[in-house]
Specification:
The complex is a heterodimer of chains A (409) and B (154). With 409 residues, chain A is an alpha/beta fold. Chain A has helices spanning 9-12, 40-53, 63-82, 97-112, 131-140, 157-163, 186-195, 215-218, 283-299, 301-319, 347-356, 369-375, 391-407, and strands spanning 21-22, 25-26, 28-29, 91-94, 118-122, 143-147, 168-174, 199-203, 222-226, 237-241, 259-262, 267-269, 325-328, 337-342, 359-360, 362-364, 380-384. Chain B is built from 6 helices and 3 strands, in the order ααβββαααα. In chain B, a hairpin with a 5-residue loop joins strand 2 (40-48) and strand 3 (54-60). Classes of the chains: A alpha/beta (409), B alpha+beta (154). The interface between A and B is medium-sized, with 19 and 20 residues.
């Protein structure tokens, strides 16, 4: 695998879904913040598993079960190393980042936080990092506060400093905003919270496939990621738990796989990671996710990050020349997510007309309605890039947006 | 599929210059429609006369070209209708945009063609299933008023 640089034809050739026409135009896939496409290696890992090793894990003594178990546990190790998790026993497979956050709310916060304690979130969170805490807060009589943003769309550190204080016990925040493209200084934030005895959860759904992630350096208590946003399959995500929290984790779902012994009177449980993985896990997806990790590391996450930022800066430049264009979020050092509005054209109409030209954008509130209220917009259109996006595609996107402008004038 | 099938000129015209937009003075009924997929919210208001005829209809709120045009056109179409007529018109409209078989009248022609006039511009929506919610946002809210009000009096 040589010359697999971001945006290169040889890299693009590895993604079958990119090579198709939509409405008579070559597909321009700019919805990578929602989900990314999958390289052939990842697709093949899924079919390989079902064609050769298909079996349940941890409960069979036969050859296939042994192979499946070995591959599944190797995948856990691989993902642990991908994010430099301090201990692979803290790497839990979930259905996605959303389930991982719900898991922390149920298996940790529910028993550790006390009535009156406060959970701190930010004004730029995805619904998946808001609603699980609202559900918990109602049940456990906790309060929730939201760290506000600067006008440019970054966290306001003066305000954050004030809020990282009692009664705050947990700060759960996104590494990268899926609307603003803001990159939060996660390491600095976690260090500050840690020094004040506040637990941290980093939502790495938007960063896991785009940024180097080092949980040991971050020193966060919990980190969640989404498999399908990093070239992996849908239906798989990861929760990584710092070992200092291992002793505070209770079971959250009961069933097979997580038990040690079950009697009519009661049950005893396995330790982590199995304690939190009741039922048959998504075996093939976990194995395919590990292959996605190998693939991303063969490209290099620093290279992907630089590629994203270069494309974002190009998009900011090209888009801003279009009449009535308003770009949302920071002007520099941002991720490959560019949200915008066009005066007098609703984002749904932008997306609809763009689709006629083969351009896949996202329009709506991006599962961040509270942020939309802060921005005083019901919705935005969004273009998001990935390692296979080319500069030429960004140019063509800008041309299409100019046509959209013309269509509604 | 051509864009013009969805964005008929009458739709574009009404979305650029919506009629009867703004709060309705002396409104007797208000209903809110919201589209959780995009966060759009529309409020519709009507003033019913003593005999139950729609004297005026207006709307407020932001939305896409399709939802704004549908709201605008319905405020015109509903004026002068009884609640029964209003309900029927809305049902037929929803069936049309969802691509369901239209009710036929005695002449055997789809009744939509006779009733709709400008509203027929929305027929293209059936080819864009993701936009059905946009076209029906305001009509559904109006329906809530008429259907609800009718049952109140029943």
């Amino acid at each position: 695998m040589h010359e697999l640089t971001p945006g290169s034809p040889s890299l693009r050739a590895l993604f079958p879904a990119l090579h198709q026409e939509v409405n008579g135009h070559p597909l321009l896939y700019f919805d990578n913040a929602a989900t990314t496409h999958k390289p052939t290696f990842v697709i093949r890992a899924i079919t390989d598993f079902y064609e050769k090793d298909n079996s349940n894990v941890h409960r069979g003594l036969h050859e296939l079960s042994a192979r499946a178990t070995a591959s599944f546990e190797a995948a856990r190790q691989r993902i642990g190393s991908f994010i430099s998790a301090p201990n692979p026993d803290g790497v839990i497979f979930t259905r996605g980042a959303t389930e991982a956050i719900n898991l922390v709310a149920s298996a940790w916060a529910n028993s550790v936080l006390q009535p009156g304690d406060r959970i701190l979130l930010t004004a730029m969170e995805h619904h998946s990092n808001i609603v699980p805490w609202q559900l918990l807060a109602n049940r456990a009589r906790l309060s929730i506060a939201f760290a506000p943003l600067t006008p440019e769309g970054r966290l306001d550190f003066d305000e954050l400093d004030q809020l990282l204080a009692p009664p705050t016990r947990l700060f759960a925040f996104t590494h990268i905003s899926n609307v603003l493209g803001t990159v939060n200084p996660a390491e600095k934030i976690c260090a500050l919270a840690h020094s004040r005895g506040i637990a941290t959860l980093v939502d790495a759904a938007q960063s896991c496939g785009h940024f180097p992630l080092d949980m040991e350096a971050l020193n966060c208590d919990f980190l969640v990621l989404s498999g399908h946003k990093m070239c992996g399959p849908t239906g798989i995500g990861v929760l990584a738990i710092h070992p200092r929290r291992f002793g505070q984790i209770s079971p959250w779902q009961g069933g097979g796989e997580m038990i040690e012994r079950v009697t009519f009177e009661g049950s005893t449980y396995k330790s982590l990671p199995h304690l939190l993985e009741a039922g048959t896990p998504p075996i093939a997806s976990a194995i395919a996710l590990a292959v996605a990790c190998d693939f991303l590391d063969s490209i290099g996450r620093d290279a992907i990050r630089q590629h994203d930022e270069k494309l974002a800066m190009l998009a900011l430049d090209l888009f801003s020349r279009i009449e009535g264009m308003e770009i949302i979020g920071p002007r520099n050092s941002r991720a490959g997510v560019v949200s915008f509005t066009l005066t007098d054209v609703h984002p749904h109409d932008v997306v609809e007309v763009a689709n006629r030209f083969g351009l896949a954008l996202r329009g709506g509130h991006h599962c961040a309605q509270p942020l939309m209220r802060v921005l005083a917009k019901p919705s935005t259109a969004r273009a998001s890039f990935y390692l296979y996006t080319t500069e030429d595609e960004v140019h063509r996107t800008a041309e299409i947006l100019a046509q959209v402008r013309k269509f509604f004038n | 599929m051509e864009l013009e099938e969805l964005y008929q000129s009458i739709i574009l015209e009404h979305s650029r210059r919506p009629r009867n937009k703004g709060p309705l003075e002396g409104a007797t009924h208000t209903a809110v429609g919201n589209n959780p997929a995009c966060g759009d919210e529309i409020a519709v208001q009507v003033r019913l006369g003593p005999t139950g005829i729609v004297e005026a209809a207006q709307f407020t709120g932001q939305g896409c070209a399709i939802s704004q045009a549908a709201a605008s056109l319905f405020t015109i179409k509903l004026k002068g209708k009884t609640q029964e007529e209003a309900c029927k018109l809305i049902r037929q409209f929803i069936e049309m945009v969802k691509g369901l078989p239209e009710e036929e009248d005695r002449s055997g022609k789809p009744s939509g063609e006779m009733l709709f006039g400008d509203l027929a511009a929305f027929a293209g929506v059936r080819k864009f299933p993701q936009r059905v919610k946009c076209a029906t946002l305001a009509p559904n809210a109006f329906y809530e008023i008429f259907a609800g009000h009718r049952s109140e009096n029943a």
